[in-house]
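#data-curation
PF: Archiving a pair of folding outputs for the training set. Convention for this channel: one message per protein, sequence first, structure tokens after, nothing in between. First:
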Amino acid sequence: MALLLYVDDMLLTGSDSALLQDLLDCLNKRFSMKDLGKPQYFLGVEIESYEGGLFLHQQAYAKDILHKASMSDCSPMPTPLPLQLDELNSEPFEEPTYFRSLAGKLQYLTITRPDIQFAVNFICQRMHLPTVSDFKLLKRILRYIKGTINLGLHIKKDRELVLHAYCDSDYAGCKETRRSTSGFCTMLGSNLISWSAKRQQTVSKSSTEAEYRALTASAQEITWLSFLLRDLGIEQRQATVLKCDNLSAVYLSTNPALYNRSKHFDTDYHYVREQVALGLIETQHVSAAYQLADIFTKSLPKKEFFDLRGKLGVAGPPTLSLRGNVSVISSPAQDTETQDFVSPRKPSRERKKATKQSIDVGAKEEKMLCFNRFEFLSNGEDNQASDSCAGQDKAPDC
């Protein structure tokens, strides 16, 4: 059984319904409570259950942000940020409080929208002194949300509750401070349960150091999630696989002979090396084409962005089929009436064929009538000619 409490909102779940009911009865004796049934709305997150799992979204909250920004009717954009982020205007923005308010609201939207995590983090780094260019980037994020307002996070049913993670970094990605950006995402089976995009605290001297710092952040998240899952009864029997696209960082986590080259980040080295030595984490190399954490470290082209967004489980609401959901079953009498009503109507092909046949029959009848009339007139003229010859006996021509 698990209980999630925030001020006066509570979410309760468990595998024993009798135990849940006993807890609710005990709480009702002490507090004034109301059972709302299955969760549908919790702290701004809308929950829709379907046959394949759960669909979490914040569509109402996103509409409220667009309304407060006066961008409810803005033109949508395909991606949150442009590819080039270094050409920024240094002119200060006139209303920094308004900028911080919108940026703070977008942070809460990332609970169900990991696709905007890097963009929101990039904007929040400029909250202390925003510029006009920063506000334009903020408006672009809002325009992207406008075009994808129905997207959310799918939590699908999965029997293999195995924890694994991806980590990546953008070496010296910040043009102002030359700090790198660390990004990671943690999966439980096929479901995304944790993600992050954060600028590193210090400047990395090499790409290996930047990747290794991302490994450390991912290892810390894996350790915490492993303890949490163990308390929930989902114990990880094997080492958690942590995938990284930097071979030097992967070799460094398993080969202590390279320690002389890593003294400048020995704290991170010792933490990850210890987790690997204890058998809690296993580092593996993954190709950059299959690196899911790439979406949390940099701005991507449209095709790659859409691909990674779909792999993370961010998609539209589930399509519910109407077939099989009709509860009213028609009786035999209703079926007979329906058949009687439908039977006079013929298919279009049959109606065309019948119309063509009637036209052909009408043409034949008209042709026969004209032929009979012509034959009648011809016989009448012959009779008149014979009568006139009989009346004139002396006519030489007759």
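PF: Second:
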Amino acid sequence: MTRPIIGRVAPEQWRSTGATAPGQRTVGEPGTARIAVDLLGGDHAPAVVVDGALRAVQDDPSLHLILVGPAEATDAVFAALEPAQRHRITVVLGDSAVRAVAEGRADAVVSAGDTAVTVVSATRALGCWPGVRRPPLAAVLPTATGHLVLLDVGSTVDPDAETLAVHARLGAAYATAVHDVPEPRVGLLTIGTEPGKGDRLRRAMPRRLAGLPRYIGLVEGHDVVLGEAADVVVTDGFTGNVLLKALEASYSRLGGPESTRAAVLLGVKGVVVVCHGAATGADLAGGIAFAADLHRRAAIAAIVTSLSDNPVLTYNEVSHD
């Protein structure tokens, strides 16, 4: 898997019709979304990333992309676009796509690169909300009754009880603020619903989650598919990632419901969307559209507002200026 490089961009490394020099903050037009995309992220980069970028730009006339990576990789994008569309593409030669968000040149970032590198880059460049030490990745899955938020799906594979409790609260706030679930039911994924089921971490969680307004207790794997018991299911990143990939493969092979094959990193001061390393061009386009939608919804501010009554996660500084 290709690993993105963390660092800065020299001013002469910008290529665009009307590019802004690094360090100079810009503000997009109302309705526009400026998405930084990691060209070198993913098992099949840069080809699938270029394909996804092209699809995304053609699908959304208000989308502006900052492609971070080698200039030659973007030639196909410029060649396929109409001349009037090319001004919506900016190329930054080789470095961190997350930094474009931190410096105010992009509204969100999308990467299919190494998850650990993306998470570390985001926490260092953007910063975490107070009370969040290890931000989780949240995915929205289709269920038999609608949709369900599953987290963590790969960011923190070995959380402690405190971290998992914070993740549960973040997932509930995300479901409320972005997916219009006023009082989300939160369940803890384990191997049975009887009290005391699971490993030491799972057995320690019920008393920590008891303060959540609608903590419904333990849930099992089938509850994630059915969606009848909970609106948010919390687990460690190892289990969540295995479950997510198993469900996506099953849906794909068996003709099940489609979903956006991307996850949002919750708890950092910016919109960060992570796609699978094996993402296709369509997956990357979906991830870019997802990131643009989160920006247009002002998702970060909405989640913060939902958390405002929680003293553990009070976050008053939404911007990272």
